[in-house]
């Protein structure tokens, strides 16, 4: 739509306005690079260019709709604020798509068509060609306890992994958080890789799929992107609720998915809702998804929970008294992840004090978890408590500031919001100043990681957790 990007003139049509604008926008970019980090910068900010500044509106251009939408929701406010520091009249930022801007910017070597690799997930350092995510060695069929609420999902997964002819495609695993969807998908991958090493199995999160796709778009190399997916035997994408509402990713996913199914390859997907209940899902995709087998996983009952606890103890070669396990199975009913968390806490404690945990200690140690089951903690409570604890304002927690004294408490608040409330990641993101769910995931993982290495931080988070969960 833009005939010539740089000929757009400003109100005060001086000859060097373009350069002035470009320069001041470059400053903003450098600033944003510091605030967002390199990965986000290369993916979202670097490709943006300033087009014009007129009537208080700064117009910027993104190379694709996808990037434009992202920038609009995530960075437009910040860009406006930064621009307004030197152009006080700036009241709006308008982001448009300019396909001509669809070049990988600042490319040093023109013959090299790729951007430097932008890693989708800071936690994986798998080589670029191995696009499958790393598997958790514990997530095998042997370690999966079957009960009435997950037996269909389990049977379907097992049959597919066994290489038998199955008459369903795709297999759609649907269930709330922590109920074993990821475990089952990875179990398929383990089993297939073991039985037929020549088969190509790709397991990845929808989030990663999305990043890979954006990266391919940026490098203008969607061909390779398509090829690598189409050359697989089994494609598994976890948590596809995350690509809902992201039009271009859905579109690409739909094509990949259709191509695979038409070739008789298997697709396994998971989501927290059934295809019919996923918001923002393309109709064609929804109906195609519904054509396969939708296997739901519901929270199990007491027996399943107890068996899972016993199996986890056996795996860790640890023992807890039977009454304590029974108590856990009775009280922690939300999901298996929480149950496991409680178990791990008791085991850690038993090791510290070097004697078995009694029922009374278990009650005491799990107070917060047990109370949470009864009390509703809000994200606002968490933000307030965390802000107070670190002597910050709630506005700091919500702000885009990346300085560690602010960013770390913010991540702790994200972690606690995930741990203590039932809100989805996108909901949590919205309550943290409109951040994306991927930022929340990153924050949660960061804290999980730090808690393992940093005892002080772990104690801090734990005491906050108790404080918040125990507060009236
Ligand atoms: P989801 O992907 O549905 O959110 P996960 O697959 O990550 O859940 O499961 C959360 C935790 O609970 C994992 O550690 C997993 O091993 C465990 N888990 C869930 N269901 C079972 C089960 N039926 N048997 C054994 N472990 C389970
Ligand atoms: Mg999962």
Description:
- The protein has helices spanning 17-36, 38-45, 65-74, 76-86, 151-161, 181-195, 206-218, 222-230, 247-262, 283-290, 302-316, 322-331, 336-353, 359-365, 367-374, 379-389, 394-398, 404-420, 425-431, 437-453, 455-470; strands at 49-54, 57-62, 92-97, 171-175, 201-205, 234-238, 266-271, 293-297.
- Strand 6 (234-238), helix 9 (247-262) and strand 7 form a beta-alpha-beta unit.
- The strands form 2 sheets. A 5-stranded parallel sheet has the order 5-6-7-4-8, with helices on both faces. A 3-stranded mixed sheet has the order 1-2-3.
- It is built from 21 helices and 8 strands.
- Helix 11 (302-316) crosses helix 13 and helix 20 (437-453) crosses helix 21 (455-470).
- The radius of gyration is 25 Å and the shape is flat.
- By secondary structure, the protein is of the alpha/beta class.
- The N and C termini lie far apart (57 Å).
- Helix content is 53%, strand content 9%.
- Adenosine-5'-diphosphate is lined by residues 139, 143-145, 150, 175, 177-183, 308, 336-337, 340.
